[in-house]
Amino acid sequence: MHKLTNRVRPYVWGARTAIPHLLGIDPDGTPQAELWLGAHHGAPSTVHCEDGDKSLPGLIAKDPHRVLGRKTMERFGTRLPYLLKYLAAEAPLSLQVHPDAARARSGYEAEERAGIPVDAPHRNYRDPHHKPELLLALEPFEALCGFREPDEIVSDLTGLNSALARGLRKDLSLADTHAALRAGLTRLLTLPEDERSLLIGDFVHEWSRADRSGPHAETVGHLAARYPDDPGAVASLLLNRITLWPGQALFLPAGNLHAYLRGTAIEVMAGSDNVLRAGLTGKHVDTPELLDVVDFSVLPIPYTSPEYIDGRRQFRPGAPEFALHEIGPGPITAHLPGDGPIVLLVLHGQVELVAEVGQGIVLQQGESVFVRADSGPLKIEGAGHVVATTIGDC
Q1: Nearest to 137 by CA among 191, 100, 92, 88
Q2: Residue 88: is it exposed, middle or buried by C-beta count within 10 angstroms (0-12/13-18/19+)?
Q3: Dihedral angle over CA of 142, 144, 150, 151, nearest 10
Q4: How far apart are CA 252 and CA 235, in angstroms?
Q5: More confident residue, 192 or 282
Q6: CB 268 within 8 A of CB 159
Q7: pTM to 2 decimals?
Q8: Is 191 within 8 Å of 200 (Cβ atoms)?
Q9: Is the omega angle on the peptide bond into residue 81 within 30 degrees of 0, that is, cis?
Q10: What is the separation of C-alpha 136 from the centre of its chain, rounded to a whole number of angstroms?
Q11: Do 229 and 196 contact (CB within 8 A), yes or no?
Q12: Is 170 helix (H, G, I), strand (E, B) or coil?
C-alpha cells in the first residue's frame, strides 16, 4: 500500500473551500474544482514508496503484473482503467456529452492522422477511450441530466412570443421525439453569429419576466447571467433539472447530455478525458460532432442504487472499468476484494487498513492510498466516511 499525493485542478467553476477543508489546509481564495486520484496523464497522483516518491504511472510501468493484477492486465493492458475525483462545483460546469468506445477510438485515430496536437484547444478526442461516469452526491447536488419529453418543454414555452421561443415550439412539435429534440438542440447550437446575442437575450428577458414555477424557473436566468449569449442557458430547458441528495448516485453512459450545476460529490469514471461540449463554456464546441454523439432518446433519469456487501455500499453500474464503494459514515468494519488495484480516499474520520500482504496503514481525513493488486484482500476498520474504487468486476 502506498499513500498518495494528488493534484487539484483549478477550473474556474470550482469552489473555494471544499477541497482545502477536505485536505486540512487553508484556502488561498482561488477556485479548486477537482482532486484527481489516479494515473491519468492529465494530473497523475504521486505514490510514496520506501525508495522515494514516484508517479503512479511510473509505479505501474515498473511492474504492471504485480501492481495491477492478472485480471486487470487481461482486460485493460498496462493502464489503470479508472479515475477517482473529488468534485467541488461552486458554479455550473459545461453542458457536455461523452462518446462511446467505438466513437472515441475512431475519433482519436482520425485526429492523430490529421496531426492535431493532443493538447490543441480544438481537439475533440485526447485519448482512444470512452468515459462512462458515476457521480455520488456528498451534499445536495444540482444537475441537468438527459432529455425531457418534448411536450413538457412546449408547455413551458407556452405564452412566450420571442423569435427563439416560437422556433423552439415549432421544432419540438414534430411527431418523432428524436427528431423534435434534435431539431431543438440544433437550432440553439447553430444560431447565426450576428443574431445570437439578440435572440438569446430576448428569450431570456421574456422567460425571466414570466411568472414561472417548477425546477427550471430560475435556471435559465442563472445560467444566462453567468454565460451571456450562450445557447446552453436556453438548452437547459430541454433537460431534466434534478437534485441529488447525499448518498444518491447517477450513472452517465455515452450520449447522455448533462451539466453539473453546484455541489460536492465523488466522481469515478473510465480513465479518459474525452468531452464534447455544447455550451456553458468558453472552450471549443464542435457542433456537428456533438450532434452525432448525443443520444436524443427520452429515458428515465439514470439513478443507480448500491448493493450492500461486506460492510460497504457497492455501486456497479455496468462499466467494466470501475466500481465505487462507499463505507460509512459511522463505525466501520468492511472488506474489499484484493484481485485488482484499489484507490481509497478518507472523507472524514480515521481508519486503519490491513491488507493480506504487507504492513497496515492508518489514514486520516483527506488522506488517500493506492493498494496494489498483490497486497491481497483489504480490511478497513475505524470510524468515518470512506470511498474506494476497484475495477468493475471486483
Answers
A1: 88
A2: buried
A3: 10
A4: 18
A5: 192
A6: no
A7: 0.94
A8: yes
A9: no
A10: 10
A11: yes
A12: helix
Question: Directed axis angle between helix 163-172 and helix 177-189, to 10°?
Answer: 150
- Say yes or no to pLDDT of 58 above 90: yes
Torsion sign, CA atoms 170, 173, 175, 176: positive
pLDDT band at 393 (very low <50, low <70, confident <90, very high): confident
Gyration radius of the chain's alpha carbons: 22
Read off the C-alpha cell for 255.
450520449
Residue of 184, 179, 190, 198 lying closest to 153 (CA atoms):
184
Enter the C-alpha cell of residue 169: 415550439
| pLDDT value at 210 more than 90 | no
| 344 closest CA partner among 293, 382, 390 | 390
Could you give the CA distance from residue 167 to residue 146 in angstroms, rounded to a whole number? 21
pLDDT over 70, % of the chain: 100
Active-site residues: which are they? 277
Those residues whose C-beta lies under 8 Å from the C-beta of residue 14, and which sit 6 or more positions away, are 31, 32, 33, 34, 88, 89, 90
| Cell 468515518 sits on residue | 384
